[in-house]
Amino acid sequence: MHNAFGAVCTAPILLALRDLSCPPPELSAGESSQYAGMSSEKRRAEYLIGRAALKSVLAGIGHGEDTSAVQWPSDYCSLSHSHGHAVAVALRDGRGIGIDLQLRRTPPFMMAERILADETLDWWRALPEPEQASALQRFWTVNEAVYKACPAPQPAYFRHYRMTDPTRLESGLTIDGTDYRFEVHTLVLAEGFISLALRV
Known about the structure:
Mean pLDDT: 92
Number of helices: 6
CATH class: Alpha Beta
Strand content: 25-35%
Number of strands: 8
Structural class: alpha+beta
Largest sheet: 5 strands, antiparallel
Distance between the termini: 22 Å
CATH architecture: Alpha-Beta Complex
Oligomer: single chain
């Protein structure tokens, strides 16, 4: 994953992966408070691996490791977790970065009209049905990564996100009615996709 993103990204990024086999990180007072407020064991477990990954990349760019101080969306870091895996990324120049990981989870087809721009929706509808689920999962990770890389408040809905070329795993992306431009890189995984978005 490091090599794949490193080969296509135009900016130097830090990336960290963690899973449930990793030892839990030492938590700050703020992180301990967030952790204590979670009732689900699944959420607690994913919180710990997510914070471990995030602390690693924050240390790498010289930021404090207290992740409870991070305001989302962040210009300099992003975090995603899915089914016992977490990934965090950070960018030294703080221009906007987002990451999204989706494993074993596909949005329902009825979501397509709500999350895809017209051109992408037309291309998606023309796919053979067995390929539509996988493509929709990929587009979901792209949209989520861009959402995280975009400054708050969010300027538009997902259907206003326009990929330059939805057929490719690397593409430009714009948002209707804004000057925001992104480069998006997606990797195919065994059980899903991971997408990285950089604001340019």
